[in-house]
Structures are given as C-alpha cells and as structure tokens.
Known about the structure:
By secondary structure, the protein is mainly alpha-helical. The chain has one domain (5-54). It has helices at residues 10-25, 31-44, 51-54. Helix 1 (10-25) runs antiparallel to helix 2. It is globular. The model has no long low-confidence stretch (mean pLDDT 94).
Amino acid sequence: MPKGLDSVPPDIRDILRLSLYQLLFLEHVPHHAILDQAVRLTRWAGFDGLTGLVN
C-alpha cells in the first residue's frame, strides 16, 4: 500500500477492524471462518480487488 492505511476504503477498514476483534476476542469462532466471512463481506461490498488484502 503505497499511501498507507488512509488509501484503503472505509468499508474495508471496518471489515478489517471487525475481523481483528473477532480474531482476538472470540475464541470459540475458528480463525478460518472469520477470514472467510471477511473476504465474503469484501466481495459483497464490491471490492473484489481487495480480497487479498483482507485475507
């Protein structure tokens, strides 16, 4: 990311924040499920090109 986190769309930053929270505090949820949901949300939001960043 040449411009840093500010260049990431706000919707994607929100998805990353939610995913990080889930990874850190929801121990009963498998990590692969959290990441899969994050990628699905990214696609649903219309940012197919950023799925690699989210994953």
